[in-house]
Amino acid sequence: TPIEQLSFTQAQQEIKDLSDELIKWGREYYEDDNPSVEDYVYDANYARLVALEKAYPTLVMPDSPTQRVAAGNAADSGSRGLAKVVHPVPMLSLGDVFSIQELMDWDAVTTKNASSQQHYNLELKIDGLAISLKYENGRLIQASTRGDGSIGEDVTANVRTIKEIPETLSEPLTIEVRGEIYMGKASFARLNQERDEAGEAVFANPRNAAAGSLRQLDPKITAARQLSSFIYYTAQNDVIGTDTQSGVLARFRELGFPVNADNRVITKMADVKTYIDEFTAKRDQLPFGIDGVVVKVNDLNMENELGNTVKIPRWAIAYKFPPEEALTVVRDITWTV
Ligand code: NAD
């Protein structure tokens, strides 16, 4: 039913039903690493909830999936037996859009709210799960998942099995960095083939396989799963001494972190289309899964100026690829090897 034709009571009921459903799907996805619906189904229902809440702002509840990072995630329940880690700087989600026009609209708002003209750093949206890494005097001391944004799970022992993540940095910095843990397509195909042959349930996609493999009590299992990583963020830009997001990535490379090399700086939003077209075409050939492109304000001073909502930064946005593509890629991965 079109939103404008709903009564207040009908809208209230639909908001409750959608919230309950999204939280249930979130539990399956974030807790069990075993979703029962495709991402585009989740996204479509989420978009409907956003639209309903926009039309009825008084019905926005603090525990709505639109107001929480990873709604349905039981970060503090200790369901897996992993220790809890508090994130003093919350680990946020990303706002998402599904068209170039929406990116242009987002650019207009961002440019209006910032005090200078925006340049953007474009990055691939890696289809994995977020990780926080803490280094003290250049040594890795703790790794944790995003959880509900405020409380994550301690996966230090597991992360130490991932070869790409440095135990020691090239400089003795004390810093927390963030990025993505993912499972490459070849490792995913191999894992699912092995599970299939052993009569075990296969993972729905590389993202869930990566999450399931990282959130293990026994690091030996994680070690056997061949996880990879790309690091792309720190809240402590002063520690690494740069004032652009593209500069952050370059410094991360110097420090020894795995950094994806496909980022690109653009000076006007219209140029985003070339990048999106390029990676829509290259997507199948990449050795890792991507589900979109992340557009980030390149000037880190503007990042501070624009700030965050309770759930998402205002200085970045994710453009998500259309669902048909996602389905094709998942099928290709599942049936290769
Ligand atoms: P998200 O995964 O869409 O976006 C935020 C995340 O993107 C960040 O936390 C970060 O980990 C990641 N990311 C990857 N590359 C990045 C880069 N270069 N820069 C910055 N971040 C990068 O958001 P979310 O809130 O975790 O999850 C929402 C999405 O998860 C939904 O849109 C849906 O597709 C999916 N989901 C699916 C189900 C399901 O049942 N299928 C359930 C819940 C969520």
Automatic annotation (TrEMBL):
The chain holds residues 8 to 344 of 685 of the full protein. Belongs to the NAD-dependent DNA ligase family. LigA subfamily. The keyword Manganese applies. This is DNA ligase. DNA ligase that catalyzes the formation of phosphodiester linkages between 5'-phosphoryl and 3'-hydroxyl groups in double-stranded DNA using NAD as a coenzyme and as the energy source for the reaction. It is essential for DNA replication and repair of damaged DNA. One of its GO terms (biological process) is DNA repair. GO terms for molecular function: DNA binding; DNA ligase (NAD+) activity; metal ion binding. The active site is at K125 (n6-amp-lysine intermediate). GO terms for cellular component: cytosol. Keywords: DNA damage, DNA repair, DNA replication, Ligase, Magnesium, Manganese, Metal-binding, NAD, Zinc. NAD(+) binds at D39, Y40, V41, Y42, D43, S93, L94, E123, R146, E180, K296, K320. The keyword Ligase applies. It comes from the Bacteria.
